[in-house]
Amino acid sequence: MNSAYNVIMRPIVSERSFDLMEKGKYTFEVAKTAPKEEIAAAVEKLFNVHVVKVNTMNVSGKKKRVRYQIPGTTRSWKKAVVTLAEGDSIEVFGSQQAAE
């Protein structure tokens, strides 16, 4: 993995990931072969923050029925929860605020 863009695929958008953001933890989909050191370096390079800890997990594909009721599975992927140093933050959606 050479580029940070090849390591970090996309941020994960869910209710749980938004709750973790308040604690300084950010969730990303990452390359399946990327080790924790590369993930930390990529986040620090892309977002200009200091990474304290990286937790990774492999998410297995779910069983689904595809065309004509043929059994299949969704793709498996790797998730990383990155803990940032106190005071650092990442603007995932820019300055978008919740509508009231």
Automatic annotation (TrEMBL):
SUPFAM superfamilies, per the entry: Ribosomal proteins S24e, L23 and L15e
Gene Ontology biological process terms in this record: translation
Superkingdom, taxonomy of origin: Bacteria
Keyword tRNA processing set for record: no
Keyword Ribosomal protein part of the UniProt annotation: yes
Pfam families for this protein: Ribosomal_L23
UniProt keyword terms in alphabetical order: Ribonucleoprotein, Ribosomal protein, RNA-binding, rRNA-binding
Cellular component terms per the entry's GO annotation: ribonucleoprotein complex; ribosome
GO MF term list: rRNA binding; structural constituent of ribosome
InterPro entries, per the entry: Nucleotide-bd_a/b_plait_sf (IPR012677), Ribosomal_uL23-like (IPR013025), Ribosomal_uL23/eL15/eS24_sf (IPR012678), Ribosomal_uL23_CS (IPR001014)
Its biological purpose: One of the early assembly proteins it binds 23S rRNA. One of the proteins that surrounds the polypeptide exit tunnel on the outside of the ribosome. Forms the main docking site for trigger factor binding to the ribosome.
NCBIfam families: PRK05738.2-4
Similarity section: Belongs to the universal ribosomal protein uL23 family.
Subunit structure: Part of the 50S ribosomal subunit. Contacts protein L29, and trigger factor when it is bound to the ribosome.
Protein name from the UniProt record: Large ribosomal subunit protein uL23
Gene expressing this chain: rplW
